[in-house]
Amino acid sequence: MTAVAIVAVVVIVSMAVAGWLARRQRGEALAPAPWDIADAARRQITLLSGQAAVAITALVLLVTLVRDRSAVVTESFDTVVVMVLVAFLSFIGVAIQFVFLPLEGGVEGTLLPRFLFAISAIQHYRTLFLSWLALKPLVETFGLAGPASVLSWLLGAAAVGGWLIVASVCYRTGLVSAREAVGLPILGMAVALPLSFAVQIATAANGSAQVLALTLTVFVLGAVTLTMHALAPIAQRTVRGSRVIAAEARLYVVGDLQATVVTLALLWLALLRPL
Prior knowledge:
Helix content is 81%, strand content 0%. It is mainly alpha-helical. The protein has one domain (2-20, 37-272). α1 runs antiparallel to α7.
């Protein structure tokens, strides 16, 4: 429960900071998108299908090959199984979201398709790096401390690169400004990470429990995104709902990006320590 409390505090604080600073950017007109959003979504479906297949295959192989639990580190093995399972479910969820992405400029307008595309891209980013971060406890499971240490820093650098790509996607769709896409996550982490360290020192939270809580956070964020994909098109058909989407879609994207960056950063920090 302590680990869950840490996650809840840092994510809520970081999203509050993002919302407070981004609220003044609402209501700007959307420029033409630099690519065909529907075509990009179709291409993503093939990629997501392959990633989901790799995740479930890895999970089956792990459970099949590691029959002698005494030969592996139990906590690391349990952690990697949960992380890969959540990644598999989330990959499938993103693929479903892209399948039903509305046509830009159709009956549901321009903002809604871009909004749904952006939050799906953010979910794809956090899911992909959840599955990659699962490699760290995987190598630890078999006692490979040296490769695990190198892998930690490689994954951290890759996560930063992935964050810049997804921030660029959100910026180029016109939903967030450059300051919001790049600056707000940095500011959010500046607030959240010291708070996380302080709570961790005060409560002596277990590393494995933190990783599992953060993995659950990724699952919850994905469930919220899937729910948004289901409800936002319905709300768009009503006068009141369309007004809310027009007023708050950009703010939601900033908050989702913020929560994703902070969650993955905390997950990476938790995995730096041996489980």
